[in-house]
Specification:
single chain; 384 residues; alpha+beta; FAD/NAD(P)-binding domain; D-Amino Acid Oxidase, Chain A, domain 2; 8-stranded mixed beta sheet; 6-stranded mixed beta sheet; 12 helices; 22 strands; 26% strand; binds flavin-adenine dinucleotide
């Protein structure tokens, strides 16, 4: 059968889209360069709106994970915690290893009628004919379809080949490692965020006594190899060092650099999806949620018809921008604060004395609240 849609990249965005398009009766080919299970550097915390997408997919039990109720900020001995707000949608996030989440999604895609999913299939680049992307080159062979989707991640080859890369003004890098905590340490219902100078550490309890430690940091002033600094940072946080006492290391440090953007999310014949469409800094923890929500949105448009796909691109882009707008504002605010550490104590002090504000902001980051709508959001209600 001739495919309707070719998808490059079988991560969160690509596999989710393949599942939804297959269920909508389209013929889909999904190409993933790696094999599963495979690792991906990530903070591994899925926000409540992302959990809602997994529920709609019917995959939340298959993914499993450790629920978390919000975040706890640590800064020079101060601790401020905030819960996700009550209202529309789930009130908890889920922390789960990417090796599990990505495998479950990819296997669900491969098992969906109408989807042909291949691993170890490296997409070499787009085929562009008369100014339009008409296919993909894979292992030296040309594959064509009316709609091409680039879900090939933050370093998207397709985006680069189409000249859509946009360097971010602030260069940041991300890293993570996993541990098994020693007996006697309880799992925490919070994602703990330790604010350091020029970096943040994110710590999440995972199933089976595992613990994730991730770091985001400014790339420019690093004066030693990132892995060495990463270890120094976690030893410099007494509460974290205590939590890691006697823990065994499960994975080596894995990182991503630089986090990059895109000039446009579409070009004739092709849609960029997930991180390929331009990764926002993960400081607010919503990347996987947006990959899932973006896939849902694109599936709604693509199931209307792929032959005239470009005609709905502008409307799709407006929908995607609306999904991201509030979250992007919160992300920019958090990055600004990270650049002005002198303002962190008063900001945390204000949030401690006004917990509903922190809870509201967490709802915005978690995708269940609109920024300027206090209380459960009517605007978001339909999509959580
Ligand atoms: C340090 C760090 C911490 C983060 N923390 C969080 C967090 O806590 N919560 C959160 O929600 N998000 C977090 N993120 C962001 C999150 O990881 C991404 O937003 C999310 O993975 C995007 O999904 P995706 O499907 O677009 O891309 P990916 O998950 O990267 O999937 C892309 C897929 O494309 C494949 N691929 C790439 N090139 C090719 C090719 N040429 N041919 C075929 N296949 C290809 C890759 O192998 C991969 O499987 C974090 C990111 C970093 C770096």
């Amino acid at each position: 059968m001739k495919p309707d849609v070719l998808i490059a990249g079988g991560g969160v965005a690509g596999s989710t889209l393949a599942i939804l398009l297959g269920r909508a009766g389209l013929a889909v080919e999904l190409f993933e360069r790696d094999d599963f299970p495979r690792e991906k550097a990530c903070g591994e915390g899925l926000m409540p709106a992302g959990v809602a997408v997994l529920r709609r997919l019917g995959l939340v039990d298959g993914v499993g994970g450790m629920p978390f109720r919000g975040v706890r900020y640590h800064f020079r001995g101060r601790v401020v915690s905030g819960r996700f707000p009550a209202g529309a949608g789930p009130r908890e996030g889920l922390a789960q290893r990417r090796v599990v989440l990505d495998r479950v999604l990819f296997e669900a895609a491969a098992g969906t009628a109408g989807v042909r999913a291949r691993t170890k299939a490296m997409v070499e680049g787009p085929i562009v004919e008369r100014g339009r992307v008409t296919g993909l080159m894979i292992d030296g062979a040309a594959h064509r379809a009316p709609l091409i989707v680039a879900a090939d991640g933050v370093h998207s080859r397709i985006r680069r080949a189409l000249g859509l890369d946009r360097a971010l003004r602030r260069r940041r890098l991300g890293m993570r490692a996993h541990f098994r905590v020693a007996d006697g340490f309880e799992a925490s219902p919070w994602v703990d965020i330790y604010l350091g100078k020029g970096h943040e550490l994110y710590v999440a309890s995972l199933p089976r006594g595992e613990l994730l430690v991730a770091a985001l940091a400014d790339a420019e002033p690093l004066h030693a190899p990132a892995e060495i600094l990463f270890e120094r940072w976690w030893h410099a946080q007494p509460l974290l060092a205590e939590r890691l006492r006697g823990a065994s290391r499960l994975t080596p440090v894995r990182g991503t650099f630089p986090l990059a953007g895109a000039r446009s999310g579409t070009a004739p014949g092709v849609v960029l999806l997930g991180d390929a469409a331009g990764a926002l800094d993960p400081i607010a923890g919503g990347g996987m949620t947006h990959a899932l929500q973006g896939a849902e949105l694109l599936a709604r448009f693509a199931s209307r018809g792929v032959a005239e796909a470009d005609s709905w691109f502008p409307e799709f882009e407006r929908g995607r921008a609306a999904l991201l707008r509030d979250y992007a504002t919160v992300t920019r605010g958090m990055l600004w604060l990270a650049r002005h550490p002198g303002l962190v104590p008063p900001a945390l002090g204000a949030l401690r004395s006004w917990p509903t504000a922190l809870s509201h902001l967490l709802g915005v980051a978690g995708g269940t609240r609109a920024l300027f709508e206090f209380g459960p959001s009517r605007r978001l209600g339909g999509r959580i």
